[in-house]
Amino acid sequence: MSKYDIGLVGLAVMGQNLVLNMERNGYSVAVYNRTTERMREFVAERAQGKRILGCATLKELVGALDRPRRVMLMVQAGAPVDAVIAELQPLLAPGDLIIDGGNSFYQDTERRAVALAEASLNYIGTGVSGGEEGALWGPAIMPGGQPEAYRLVEPILTAIAAKAEGDPCVAYMGPRGAGHYVKMVHNGIEYGDMQLIAEAYDVMARGLGMPAAELAQVFGQWNQGELQSYLIEITSEILARVDDETGKPLVNLILDEAKQKGTGKWTSQDALDLGAPTHTINAAVESRIISAYKDERVAASQVLTGPAIKFEGDRDQMIEDVRDALYAAKICSYAQGMGLLRAASAEYDYDLDMGAIARIWRGGCIIRARFLNDIAAAFDHNPKLTNLMLDPFFRDEILARQGALRRVITTAITMGIPVHAFASSLAYFDAYRTKRLPANLTQGQRDYFGAHTYRRTDKEGVFHTEWTE
To answer: Are strands 97-100 and 70-73 parallel, antiparallel or unpaired?
Structure first.
């Protein structure tokens, strides 16, 4: 009996769709799920007539695979991944490969990579972005691990990945947890993108009084220009949807409480550990957190007053300003994300290729956008680029739009509409371009109360002042 090319554990929708993607691209797949009934249902229905083998046990799955065996895990991050690895490891032989395709925390991947290497097993932690549709028709894939481990699965990942301008949206990221780290930052950037879009929507909906149908048209028009992206596209579609029962725009009926799975928070936390500024991503995480305080916000709205929301300017000009502000803030946000990747690459010895990362994000993933072609070009032109805003193209783009960003923020503040991500993006831009920040006073305070010392601008050395007698 012929052996199967790869095994997959975990048949939630993402797992099922990846299996179907692999089979459609010429690979035979053995599958296993902890709940056997789900496996049998999948094999009998979606996988019927395909080169997909259902297995009732992990031992049966491993026995069905060609050597070196390749087993991909699509299970919940955290303890479930460790549990499956512990059960799977005794069944494998040296040189076999385990691939974790879930949203695992990169430090967990680092730990597992070291432990499995000591057992002579190959291990890859890979980010897979694109949601259920991407898993089925082509996601962006960010694998990290041993180079020889990647070669074992490179043909399969290349076949199933999305294609952008003919190029597969997959590339080897680096050792150990590099793949999951890049996916984590992808999700942090995604948080920033989504919050900036939400704030643009809020300024136009509440500030300008624009109905959902008109906003759908505006976002649809924006999707034809420099803002073209998956998130702008689906924003237009969401705003256009009318609820079947009430006839009202569905977006107006959705509770204003945004959930999160943790990857955005992980990005902010690691950025703080590395000392990398991620103003916009942090603002996006904080905005989701405060959205969860719905009951408190409703109560506070009855007692905490603010300015009346009344716009008296040129409405059409403000719409143009919001578009330009969104683009300028997006540049700031991506500059922060790429800066974090650069810092992590140095700290964790990942040796990340920024241009390659931008290229694989052009298709399949949630942040896919025309904009990423320009980012890839910037890092291809200068692989040592310290900040995206210093690339000549992006420098000119943000300088041309900073006025619009300032006007939108000022207008929103005047009307009492929170624009945390917009304002944080501008603060990052202004701080980065400022030759002298007030940190001199902060350092003086630290020396005053804690003798933390300071450096001077006029002489070398480290100094301390006795501030009190």
So the answer is: parallel
